[in-house]
Each structure stands twice: as C-alpha cells, then as structure tokens.
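Supplementary Text 2. Reproducibility record for the structural model of the 524-residue chain.

All settings were left at their defaults, and a single model was retained for analysis rather than an ensemble. We include the record here because the model underlies the residue-level annotations in Supplementary Table 4.
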Amino acid sequence: MHRRVQGFESIALLITTCLWAASSWAAEPGTSFRAAPYCSGDYADDFTALAPYVQEFERQPQGHSSSYCIRNTATYECLSYSSEGNLRRVRRKAVLHGTAFGYRVQGGETLLLTNQHVAEWPAVTDEEHTVEDVPIGCKRVADSIKIVDNEADSYERDDIPLTRVVTDVQLDVAVLKARVPLQILPWKIGRSAALREHNVVDIRGFPLGAFRAANIGKVVSAYDHDEDRDWDHDDFVVDALLSPGNSGSPVLAVSCKTGEYELVGIYHANYTGGAALNVVVGIDQVRDLMTTLRRVPHSRGDGLGAPVAKDRMPLMKDLRVLYEPFFPLGALAAQVRARQDGALVFEVLSREFPLKAYPLIVLEDLPSPRPDAFGELGRLWFGGPQGLKAYARSDLESDVQAQVQRVLDALRRNAVSTFAYRSATRGALNSREKYESVTRLERSLRKSTLNQRELVQLTIELADRLSPHGAEVPVFLSDALAVPIPNPAFPSGVVAVESTNSARTSPSSSVSPSQEHVQAGNGP
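Retained model, structure tokens:
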C-alpha cells in the first residue's frame, strides 16, 4: 500500500456539503446531552447527534473561521557544470498551499497546527525527499510561510507571517505561530482512541488552496499504523472526499455525551489508487506537542527508539558471547566493541571496507552517571588511510561537538536495533505475532539506515577535515581499545589490561590478549 502526500499540485474530486438537519433535543453548552439512536460509543454515527446550539453556531461565519489557507514558499539553489567546466548556480522557486488551524491564543499571539510536510521543505532534495520542478541534489537557501486568502491571493500587504515553533516529522505535525490574535477552534480536544468504524467526521480546510470548505465522511478504519516515508505514527482512515490543500485540516467528530464537536485528528495523506481513502493523524499522539511545544522521542515499539540505560547491558553481553560486532550506518559499515571497564568503542569504517579497513571515526562511549542515560561521549578519533588523530571533546568547536553527538546517537540506535533483530531471528518464529514483530523490526531498521545519507556524508566530511594530514603523527587504534590509566573504574596504580607484546606495552596503548596492536589503516 502506498500513500501520496497531500498539499501539492495534483487534482482530486472535491465535494462540499452542509451539515445535516438539526435534531429535536435541547441541551445547554457544557451539559450532558441525551444520546441519539446513532450513539453507541463515545462518538456519533450521524450528525443528528449535534446539539441544537452547536448547529446554530455552525451556521454563523465564525463556526468555520478557525481554519486558514497557508502558503509556503521556498528557494532552492542547484549546482551544475557547463560543458566548459564552469560552475553554474541556478535558483528554483517552489510554492505549496495547505491548511492550518488555530488552537490557542496567548500573549496576543496565536498557535496553529498543520502538517510537517506543509510547514517545512526538505533541506536538500533527494530520492526520498523530492520537490516538484526541483532537481535532486538542490539545497534550500530561503523559505517563508504565511496566511493568505487563497492560492490566487497576490496582495501581500495583508498576509500574516508565520514562524515554525516545533515540527515532528514522524507525526507529520507542526506548530506554527502568528504574532497576532486569530480565531481559534472553539471545540475541545477529543480522544482519537475512542473512534469506531462508522463514526461521522467533519473536515474543515482549503481544498486545492482555492476556498474554505467543509467535507464530511465516516471512519472506515479506526487504526492504521503509518510507516510510509519518514512517518511513524498511528492513523485512522476516513472516506471523506478530500483534495490537495486539505493537508493540515482539523478533523472533528461528534461527542455523544455533549452533542458538541471534538478535535480527533489532523488530515495528512491519502492512499494512491484508492477512492476516498484518506488517513488522519490521531490527536492522542499530538496532545503533548500542542501543550509543551517540544518534540518528545516516540516509543516506536520496534527497537529503533533512542537507546536508554537498560539497553546498554544486553548490548555488552551480546558483544562478548554471541555476535560479530558489525552493523550498518547508512551505506557504511560500523562496529562496536565492549571494553573491560564497561566502555563501548564505536568505529565507522571506510567506504572501501572490507578491502580497506581503516576507520573514519572512533568514538568512546563511557558509562553514564545518570541512571536513565545510555552513555556519555568520551574521547574521539578521526581517521583516514594515514591513521588516526585523537581529540578530547573540549578540543572541538560547539557545532562539531553537536555533529559528533548526532553520529554517536545514530551508532547507538543502529547497534542496539541490529543486535535486537539478530536476537529475535535466532529464536523460533512459531507464531504470527513473533513473525510480524521480526518483520516490522527488519523493515524499520532498513528504513532507518536508508534515511541516513546526510549522516554518512557528515561523517565522511568530519573525517576528511579532522584526520591527520601532512607531517602529523598518527596514533594507534589500540589507544581506544585499551582501558586508559588511571581510570576511576580500577584501583589506582593497577594496570587494567595487559598486552601480550610486552615490548609494545604502555599505559596509553595496552590491549587485551584477544586484540592485536595495530595502527589504524596501515597495520603494525
């Protein structure tokens, strides 16, 4: 099954409709509402369950005025060479329209929700992150996002600029901010987990960016886990007829308890080849982001989340008794070794591995004093064919420290995931549940490594810049594999690891009997 992101230039059928006729029951705002015959759960199967005052409010202009058409414009710079070998720079402009809706006003400013794919362009275009009419390999150099009347609006003086507050690519959700008070959604946040098949939904947005419209439909599937593209979240599926430009629209259901609308999701994509099969991000996963304005790590349930302290000991055990130490970092090979003082040593190997087996980067991952942390970055080395050059973390500029931490986080995650996958495949797959769990883990691991192209390029560039050059004397890989002396993990004055080659033993280069003393890239 394939999904196509909404919000771009393809055309789809649009049907707009009005709300159904008012029911005969009366209720005051905020009071309990007598259930209609179409109410068998938390949400209604028919719009006749709407309270009369809600229907009356919906007839007013303000009933639909909390959704806004947003225009996101980006400029990409594309580099190429002419036939004479001269470098050419060409700039391409990209524009899309989508929907956002206000949900909170504070301090004279308004917070709005939309999709991440509406609010944010790819930093660099590639096979997985394409932009229409922009070649692969182009870099975004400028962008702007603002509220407009519709896609034909060319009068800029009354446009409302927006800024990104937080984005979450896994949820495909973004929070934007307008520095003016705007109309916000008047309804409460509901529970997407309480939705059932046949519940009615109302979607308010700007199909094709052309005009404000309300579309209605029903829930046809209450659960659909979405791992397409960079996404990893839970959806539900509706049969409303929606169009590009509806991306980011609020999806409302009718509460059987109050007869009021409640926000249950954000429309974000559809199934290609399917008539009116549209997927909606369940609001339960978005609630914390809306409140804290911070992206929190998601529990993926597949071993690919951020490793924590409890993941360290199983990895150490597997390294000592079960497995070869290799795992992927994007298109590169990496390995991890367990040191006798509890440290882990990660290596990223060259593109020519195994023909050429020198490391590009070596990172020392020390046990953390924090009970919930996987580890702490210790010393680090950058390498090339000439050998390794050692650094302390404090030797590096702050931006390089942040880049190294990104590489280390990915190495931890990939190592834990790979070893978890190997452990799972070692057991008997004697049930559908176990088989599907292993299949899901393998799919997520492959997807994760495919999305690490930028990280691979970053690693290669760091190694090229920080490895030894010219007359610089390289150091030994065994410096990283040996326990440094003195070490708080061992009594003062005691050599923790002895070398089998006494002529080459030193406090900074001792190795265990199972390890050879080799210079990175060139052998002994």
